[in-house]
């Protein structure tokens, strides 16, 4: 399988549409519950799938799986002029199964880099009467789980979310054209189904962040947005390591390594996004990532890789990047919403690319790791 897709597909496909009596659902593709999953058959990919259209496809669709996923780094200043640094993750998932009502789950996380603390929250709802969009609306994104909200149109997005001690009210503005992954934004899996996938790989951040009792003004930052939807089902993989890297030379990299239950990498995807937002898919052999350390969660006992050296050797991009987590503990135990446990965290990047020194920031997601 040469191409793949963003993080939570297998989990959402299998776990979200349990009844509200959900007991547990462990890692992607593995269900542990006393409830019965609704039967869903594999969907054959239509011979001709329509291309992505903007802004019509920014909003929701009537497919099995969909999400709007944001990660980023931001700087904020308080009333005294003191600057604080944060990472954030905010995502809304939508899942559909048969005649059941749409089900939504959401995760919100803050990496407080001044306090060296990680905080997160999660929500889920069943929308009993919501009419689903059909991909033809020109109104853009309009999604919410309770008072957590995502609104957006043509790369102008608004995010609102709150949890204990933290809240965001962010305006994101796309700085580069949208990137349709795999060339046309379409990934097919044969009898496994199909998925659309695009990213806004560099979005400027404005707005406010509430840190405990203080409302801080955002003074700078960069976010990454993923939107993926389609009719695709689990195929029994173990998990993945997903990277979104934003470099100071106005270049981004999106890559992932899919591994089986034993940890063996079975599929690799890498895309180099140049300053003009042209996505170039790199051959698998041009990419090599080495874990430099490991971290064991005191909450779950799960051990994750922690720190990486990424080697790139292609005609478009050559170099070496050192990637370090800004906090060791950025683990989300999301059993109450999507039924899984995963690590997703802010990272720092230093190295050289095409014979030039570069630095940057990014996010890495790790799933499928066990005790």
UniProtKB/TrEMBL annotation:
Signal peptide: none annotated. InterPro entries: AttH-like_dom_sf, AttH_dom. This is Carotenoid 1,2-hydratase. It comes from Tengunoibacter tsumagoiensis. Residues 65-231 form the AttH domain. SUPFAM superfamilies: AttH-like.
């Amino acid at each position: 399988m040469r191409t793949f897709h963003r993080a939570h597909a297998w989990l959402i496909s299998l776990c979200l549409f349990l009844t509200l009596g959900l007991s547990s659902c462990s890692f992607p593709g593995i269900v542990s519950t006393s409830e019965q999953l609704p039967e869903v058959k594999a969907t054959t990919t239509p011979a001709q799938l329509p291309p992505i259209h903007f802004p019509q496809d920014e909003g929701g669709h009537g497919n099995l799986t969909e999400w709007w996923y944001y990660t980023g780094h931001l700087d904020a200043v308080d009333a005294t002029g003191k600057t604080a640094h944060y990472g954030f993750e905010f995502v809304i998932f939508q899942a559909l199964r048969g005649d059941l009502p749409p089900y939504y789950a959401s995760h919100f996380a803050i990496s407080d880099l001044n306090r060296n603390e990680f905080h997160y929250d999660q929500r889920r709802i069943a929308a009993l009467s919501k009419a689903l969009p059909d991909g033809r609306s020109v109104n853009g994104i309009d999604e919410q789980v309770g008072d957590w909200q995502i609104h957006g149109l043509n790369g102008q997005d608004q995010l609102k979310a709150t949890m204990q001690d933290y809240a965001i009210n962010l305006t994101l503005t796309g700085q580069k054209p949208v990137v349709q992954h795999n060339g046309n934004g379409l990934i097919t899996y044969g009898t496994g189904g199909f998925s659309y996938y695009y990213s806004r790989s560099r979005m400027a951040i404005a707005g406010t962040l509430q840190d405990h009792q203080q409302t801080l003004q955002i003074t700078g930052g960069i976010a990454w947005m993923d939107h993926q939807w389609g009719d695709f089902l689990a195929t029994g993989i173990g998990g993945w390591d997903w990277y979104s890297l934003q470099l100071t030379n106005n270049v981004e990299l999106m890559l992932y390594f899919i591994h089986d239950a034993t940890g063996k990498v079975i599929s690799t995807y890498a895309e180099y996004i140049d300053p003009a937002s042209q996505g170039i898919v790199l051959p698998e052999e041009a990419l090599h990532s080495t874990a430099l350390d490991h971290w064991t969660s005191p909450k779950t006992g799960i051990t994750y890789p922690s720190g990486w050296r990424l080697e790139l050797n292609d005609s478009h991009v050559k170099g070496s990047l050192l990637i370090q987590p800004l906090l060791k503990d950025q683990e989300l135990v999301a059993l109450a919403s999507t039924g899984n446990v995963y690590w997703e965290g802010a990272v720092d990047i230093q190295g050289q690319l095409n014979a030039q020194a570069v630095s940057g920031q990014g996010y890495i997601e790790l799933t499928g790791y066990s005790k």
